[in-house]
Amino acid sequence: MIQGKVIKYGHNVDTDVIIPARYLNTSDPEELAKHCMEDLDKTFVDRVRKGDIMAAGRNFGSGSSREHAPIALKASGISCVVAETFARIFYRNSINIGLPILECAAAAQDISEGDQVQVDVNTGVITNLTKGKTYQAEPFPAFMQEIINADGLISYVRERKK
Question: Could you tell me if 160 and 102 are in contact, meaning their C-beta atoms sit under 8 angstroms apart?
Answer without folding.
Answer: no
